[in-house]
Fold this protein.
Amino acid sequence: MAYWRWLIIDEISMVNARLLAQAEARLRAVIPSANAWKTAVGGEARPFAGLNVIFTGDFHQLPPPEGGYIADVPARFKSHEPGSKVPDVLMNYGRELFWSGPVQGVVELTERERCKDEWWNEVVDELRRGQLSEVNWRYLHGLPVENCKLSAAERASRQRVITGPDDERLQMDRFKHAVAIVSNNDARYQINKDRARWYSQTACTPLRWAAAIDKASTPALQVDACDKESKIRWLQDHDRDTGDLCGMLPLALGMRVALTDHLDRSPDKLLLRGRAGYIHSWVWEENDRLPQVVYVKFENSGHWSLSGIDEPGVYPIYPVKRQWHLDAKRKQKLLKVTRTQLPLTPAYAMTAHASQGKTLRAVLLDLNVDKRVDGTFGTVAASRVRHREDVLILRPFPRWLFSRGEAEGPTLLLQTLRGEEVDWKNYRDARFPSAACEKCKQVRCFDAFDHKQWENIRANRAGICMQCIHGDDGPAKRKISGNRAKIFCAECHAHKIEDAFPRALLTLDAGQKRCLSCAQQVRALTCAACSSTKPVEKFQATMVTMPAESIMCQHCQAEARDLPRQSRERWFTCFACNITYAGRPYQDEKAWGKNQRARRCANCVSRSSRQEDEHTCRNAKCKRKWQEHQPKGSKRQRYCPECRRK
Ligand SMILES: Nc1ncnc2c1ncn2[C@@H]1O[C@H](COP(=O)(O)OP(=O)(O)OP(=O)(O)O)[C@@H](O)[C@H]1O
């Protein structure tokens, strides 16, 4: 390692930020300081100890399942508050290697070599951008497309979603052994077992099950979860949780299997994890749980052959021992189990993560995935083949799953690596609107205000941050779980999140909406009651956040309040904020005449009028509201103090 000069890391999108940080630190620790390239002119160690590192990959492909995505925007670009806490230091360090300088330069490959099918490449591109078009979605499903001028043959070739289990294309040779690409390991494990059974039936060859032998360590034996039923359950868990060894491994002669571990790294054989082959033969006594050895003939194996085995490309696979933990999610893992099993799995299904980087002869896709699955699943799974004819989609899928837009992190990272200027202030304003707290006067991000206070700010009124309300003991931030879709501001031409807009201005048509910071810059307003344009000082602060037809100057407000109730056709006083506006309330005609609570302005319409620590009595005859602080964890009182006494 002391003489290494180059390090090449492929599929960088799947390397997690924490692992990259650990690798970088390790290199600096092990490479001797005597190496001239390790230290810079100033004497400090260079990143990666001065090695030349080449990263290859595409950040618009799948992110790592855990450990932090390198292409996620680092915390320092998101926060308005200098010195705010970084959630995971190691993860942040790994990200910064890419975002702040050590990675210099980027080379972009723009030509597609794997697939020359123009239409399929167009579909893959749309999936990559998270903008699958309606037309292509309809073609994939074989649905009619308006004004389609394609030939019947072309349209048929574009229908990749199968019509059902009887679809003739499933009987084609290439799809009989084709691998199914799925989104998670549970689905992969189940499909592998089902298709192994199906293979043994269609090939008329007996299916045998190799059952893993699990030996629990003493600490594991002492916990309750180590009884007989649990051991049977372990055999059903998928192999990623159990040391990459299957619990029940179906085996049949001629069945397609893949390695779950690196077996032989010699350059002629390269029997690495994921390498597929067919079961050639085995040595397996009738009553044994496991075979003594399974011989696998590997695909594209060249001409090597082992001594004692005549047929080229055949390799003996023996059972191996691997350790796994019952408490794998804990930091200090204690409950160790040792499993003995063959390092093989049926090669009929793989996760999209495992497929990334591979070129496959034919694939079966399941695109009807959970909405939490990363949007890039589609592009990774669909781009493994050379022609559209090599893909079949197993069931219909909704278009919205792949039309949720592309992740912003990879695009911004690419801009940064290209050396382009990124407007970080604009980025922060669009995603993390901020405001000054009325009490401490510090500019805080919107999640530092509770919902009620932020609603005040959205209506251009004063708001107090959570820290000033609760002190150091209370929560400093609230959890934001709203819609993160961006809305276009007609004034500053930026796409911003909903929280950056006054609630009232969101009722306007698209193209007329104005964000809060643009609304605050308005210097003159026109009163809808007297039609005169006056400086903004002549209006209440909240008027800048209202649509033109609701704006009323202070003079007209005072006049309106002196008028009799009957004249309220042209103005109203909001029940929640007690401000008089021109026009009619946001509520529908029927409600506003009868129910004064419904008489709310567009800023207050969906805001709860519930006070902090306010409760409504459960007693149907009482329904009284009372205020009482009920700490978390204590028994919740559902009846008011008076009903409790009764
Ligand atoms: N210069 C080339 N000439 C001909 N074919 C090529 C060339 N480069 C790549 N290919 C073909 O494209 C296939 C995919 O290439 P490669 O694995 O390098 O792509 P990739 O960019 O890593 O894709 P991904 O990251 O999506 O897996 C190769 O298996 C090869 O068949």
Q: What stands out?
A: The mean pLDDT is 87.
